[in-house]
Amino acid sequence: MSQTAKRVRAFRLNGRAHEVLVADNVLLLDTLREALGLTGTKRGCDGGECGACTVLIDGTPRLACLTRTEECEGHGVETIEGLVENGRMSRLQRAFHERLGTQCGYCTPGMVMAAEGLLRRNPDPSAAEIRAALAGNICRCTGYVKIVEAIEDAARGAP
Amino acid sequence: MELLPPFHVATPGSIAAAVAAGQDHAASRFIAGGTDLMVNLRHGIGDPATLIDLRGIPELRHVSAEPDGLVIGAAVTLAELAEHPAVASRYPAIATAAAAVGAPAHRAAGTVGGNLCLDTRCIFYNRSAWWREANGFCLKYQGDTCHVAPTGKRCHAAFSGDLAPALLVHAAEIDIAGPGGVRRQPLAELYAEDGAAHLSLAPGEFLVRVVVAADPWPASYAKARARGAIDFPLAGVAVALRRSGEEVDGLRVALTGTNARPFLLAGTDALLGAPVSPAWLDRLGRLVQKQVSPMRTTLLAAQYRRRVAAALAQRLAATLGGLDAVGRAA
Ligand SMILES: Cc1cc2nc3c(=O)[nH]c(=O)nc-3n(C[C@H](O)[C@H](O)[C@H](O)COP(=O)(O)OP(=O)(O)OC[C@H]3O[C@@H](n4cnc5c(N)ncnc54)[C@H](O)[C@@H]3O)c2cc1C
Ligand code: SF4
Ligand code: FES
Ligand code: FES
To answer: Is the overall model pTM greater than 0.95, yes or no?
Structure first.
């Protein structure tokens, strides 16, 4: 029970250099929410099954509930908080809002980050490609149709 | 869910350093993407003092698809494998199986080695520590009774990795590193029919790479699952089928999700020398139904998994044999 020594881990978080003092057995989800106060990233199933905790690591969607903070050393982590531009929601966030792609909102940060990862790789995805990219994100409210429409809108440049 | 147990992470940069780390730390486990092991650790399954992260070893991160064969490093991610152009074009069964794992974020983190060395699964095992404790634990870990087959003395948890059958039908071999050096063996020999000890790796041994011969037989993979994504296979089947003229002159069928190990169907030689026909497909289906042994380890009935395994094998073989998916002349 002696192996919990903390170490300083340096990584980029939402574009800015960050250092956190953390033990190897601490999850990224806990560092974000508990240590850094970035509660936009949600804890849903807490076991890799729902996508609510989706963040981007080096631009790729990953699950913060299965990722140790230690693994992020030297990499770039982006959370929902990082999408805000000058205090305004990004186009993708606005599209979720306008298109009613969010209801209770619990799945939304994960959905938006999964969609953000897709749009960076593929700025003009088909509905099938959107569904495939969001296949790991579960929503209890919307029925998904509005979410896909929101992402299509964001890709097309509306609203 | 529970906190993670206390552990520290070692990040060796070479095969030799990883072997040495395994010897230095008695209570250690190898880890790659962590998409299986992290969940289990949080469920109170295992209490390693050290995790040895294999992803910093350059040899393990490489796919090479040369004319003389395919070499896949154990720490290559499933997304990298599925999207590799030469794998997708020449080894479609392997690419399909890799793309059928979980959802995109699992494939971005999960690796080939982790998929092949995946722990076996059961509805009485993939549970929180308090759930398992309230249920008296079970034979596989911390308990002494199997809730699936209480009179038996062995665990029937199902191996549920998607990639293994697609590699087995290509007669893949693996390199294993350990204190004794690196050895090569058929992938099939990695596995044993025991849900509590399904891998034949000795302590301190890990997978380095998978090697597949060039000129693979035409092959494909399919799985049955409750939803179109995320879910593990209730049954997964790969078929490799070579024809000379109309007649089948090479056939390998491998299964996952139905037994404690992924395995190559025995007795397929009896199906050689004839064209694929409805009667031939019946014989194949019966062979599959006889050799799979799904138990009540999933929410869906074992009998469904038995029948869907046979149906998938028949569908894949029909298509590879020049018929349509239900066995009519295409
Ligand atoms: C919600 C969810 C859904 C999933 N769905 C699927 C699915 O549909 N199909 C599927 O196949 N899997 C599925 N998985 C499981 C998992 O994501 C994948 O199997 C993945 O490939 C595991 O790889 P990893 O690198 O993350 O393994 P890890 O978790 O790092 O390791 C898994 C095991 O393998 C061992 N190991 C890792 N690398 C090596 C090595 N090189 N040599 C020896 N031992 C090694 C570890 O010690 C551990 O015991 C799912 C997981 C989750 C959480
Ligand atoms: S098959 Fe039996 S021993 Fe194995 S995990 Fe399930 S309940 Fe436990
Ligand atoms: S909280 Fe991470 S996948 Fe559900
Ligand atoms: S909006 Fe409620 S879970 Fe998706």
So the answer is: yes
Contact assignment for A23 to B6 by CB distance below 8 Å:
yes
This model of the complex carries an ipTM of: 0.97
Instruction: Answer yes or no: do A24 and B105 touch at CB < 8 A.
Output: no
Residues 212-231 of B with CB under 8 A from A: 228-230
B-chain residues near A135 (CB < 8 A): 103-104, 228-230
**Is B26 at the interface with chain A, CB within 8 A?**
no
Which numeric CATH code is attached to B61-117+158-320?
Answer: 3.30.390.50
The domains of chain B are located at: 1-58, 61-117+158-320
Q: Does B42 contact A at CB distance below 8 Å?
A: yes
What CATH number labels A91-156? 1.10.150.120
Q: How far is A14 from chain B (nearest CA, A)?
A: 19
Kindly list the domain boundaries of chain A, sorted by start residue. Answer: 6-83, 91-156
Q: What is the pLDDT along chain B (330 residues), one digit of tens a residue?
A: 568 999 999 999 999 999 999 998 889 999 999 999 999 999 999 999 999 999 999 999 999 998 889 999 999 999 999 999 999 999 999 999 999 999 999 999 999 999 999 999 999 999 999 999 999 999 999 999 999 999 999 999 999 999 999 999 999 999 999 999 999 999 999 999 999 999 999 999 999 999 999 999 999 999 999 999 999 999 999 999 999 999 999 999 999 999 999 999 999 999 999 999 999 999 999 999 999 999 999 999 999 999 999 999 999 999 999 998 888 887
DSSP chain A: -----EEEEEEEETTEEEEEEEETT-BHHHIIIIIS--TTS--SSSSSSS-TTEEEETTEEEETTS-BGGGGTTSEEE-GGGG-BTTB--HHHHHHHHTT--SS-SSHHHHHHHHHHHHHH-SS--HHHHHHHTTT---SSS-SHHHHHHHHHHHHT--
